[in-house]
Amino acid sequence: MRIATYNVNGINARLPVLLKWLKETNPDVACLQELKAPDEKIPKQEIENAGYTAIWHGQKRWNGVAILAKTGLEIKETVRGLEGEPEDEQSRYLEAVVNDITIGCLYLPNGNPAPGPKFDYKLRWFDRLSARAKQLLDMNKPVVLTGDYNVMPTEKDVYKPERWINDALFRLEVREAFHKLAAQGWTDAIRKLYPEETIYTFYDYFRNAYQRNAGLRIDHFLLSPQLDMKLKDAGVDKHVRGWEKTSDHVPVWINLAK
Q1: Per the similarity annotation, which family is this (predicted)?
Q2: End-to-end Cα separation, the chain, in angstroms
Q3: Cα dist from 69 to 20, 29, 55, 120, 153, whole Å
């Protein structure tokens, strides 16, 4: 099974890119972030025409997550949003079971400027995600937690790390939160297969970042122990970043053995 994650940076603005990528790579499941559209504006018909069933958690102008599964695969929504802050209305987490694999699609807050209220919210959200992750591990079932984590876990995950020390995506508190989450028993799929390679999933629109390969690795796959040994392959579709009117993120994917 191929599972992919892609921060589309506006599902309607990038719809031609999304549909082209789906047709080219044909993932079984695609988790999308930053839809930037309310529920009623999700292009459901176009997604269905592309051969996918979709569930989504939209929000006007900002945020938003969706899980797409190939037509014929059973998809059942299980969780919408994270517990811990009932007043939180940001659409950042969606969870579903697809063919017996629980998939959590997440869009972790950016957190800038840091320090400040947005950074505090990011750390609280990380704590809430970690709490849900622990619950999922305790279920002793196959789980994938994937999406835009807005964190570069190590210096090898960022071009010129010295420039990012005080940024909310690279501050020590955020990296520690990611490592604490992973230490529950999760496997970072990309780093398991490619421990030393330079791999980026985000390239800014400015300063020719893509052309210079000056990027960040902020989109991640965390796998539960039940899936760790089933991981066959993983990678990024870097070339998609070079398409016209594309997202500043690139799709990331894993292949799991049956």
Answers
A1: Belongs to the DNA repair enzymes AP/ExoA family.
A2: 7
A3: 16, 4, 9, 34, 29
